[in-house]
What does this fold into?
Amino acid sequence: MKKWGSVIVAVMLTLSLAVAGCANQGSSTGGADAGEILVGVILPVTGNNATDGKDMQNAIEMAVKKINDNGGVLGEKLKIEVADDGCDPQMATTAANKLASQNVVAVVGGYCSGATLPSSGVFKNANKFCAFER
It folds into this structure.
């Protein structure tokens, strides 16, 4: 249980920082109602890594609930939109295009590098996502 607590705290911090850092870039309309910030989540919810992907999705949903129960981010509630990349480059590109068309303000996820690399190119080309670089 201690491990899941750490995971939830890490996800909460990541979501809060990503959304707060990207809040002035792009619009959160599209798939979100007024007073909501739409955050994309790209994970393998089908395929060989589906068990891990669903565990991550559950942890993110728990974190979002906790954030929303504590007032949200910047006074707005978070809403997530999950897209399945199946750890497959083609599925990841389709999932990334889906999220980009829904005007998410940030994207959390990417589990398999083979799927994350092509999806990150889609997000960069959408030109409405902020990037955190080292």
